[in-house]
Amino acid sequence: MSKPEVLVTRPLFPEAREILERHFDVEYWTAPERISRAELLRRVADKDALVCLLTEKVDEELLTAAPKLRLAATVSVGYDNIDVPACTRHKVVATNTPGVLDETTADLAWTLLMAISRRLVEGDTWMRSGTWPGWDIDQLLGGDVYGKTLGIIGFGRIGRNVARRARGFQMRVIYSDAAAAPTEVEKDLSARFATLDQLLAESDFISLHVPLLTETRHLISKAAFEKMKRSAHLINTSRGPVVDEAALAEALENRKIAGAALDVYEQEPKVHAALVARKDVILAPHIGSATTETRTKMAVMAATNAAALFEGRRPPNALNPEAIGL
Ligand code: GLV
User: Residue 269, preceding bond cis, omega within 30 degrees?
Assistant: First the structure.
């Protein structure tokens, strides 16, 4: 019997390929450049499944172009690249990769927090320029991390892992979310619920961990920067459009806040020109989950989701099992 056909928009990793090749006839996109939209639409047209990355949009147009499609598996936890209601209408099961990247992404949020507070990238640039004159009393003075207030916006799995790490730095942790976390969680993480306004006003470091939704787009806007401490640093490892980049550039220029460390951008791969020019900003290239261990786990998870559906089982990470009455 012939196997179902899957398009995979990157070769992924051997561990994931092994699962995919056992269950599917696999077509990989292997060119060094990312697959173009036109090529994606052309290649997915006759496929039963798609394993894609967060850079590929699964929307009404793609779903219409691929009438046989039954599954779209994104190798990411964020699935704002997938129009889930449209998938449901087209009887396509969508899946993502939650859980396996929480610790890794929390590590990167902390990497950025430490690096911006101690001006590490500025220091590195200085050393490489060959102009460092040697130690002096007032060089590259940053701010302390220990004992400060960390404000976590979005207290899901990743936000909680960021909170856990703060204990070692004796920080006060506050968080905001749609609802307060269970008391045991708050106790375990020594974290306290706050309104968004309280959090913005009290935090020395503000770390974003919300998904991109209509309600979270530009959550951090001009009005939010107005409420922050002038000494505050903003860390974003969630999704770029959660922050209004133009408002961020303006807030930094007007010294409304002290700095920002970003891993995600409003219009990737573009970065707002005014941010690129600033020393009080660290720019990382969307590497929140980018460790070999974690990216391998994510790819295996996507492949496992795809395999499950075609074995007649509910994919473990189905976002819309109702699409096919699972
Ligand atoms: C990365 O940004 C992800 O959503 O997995």
Answer: yes
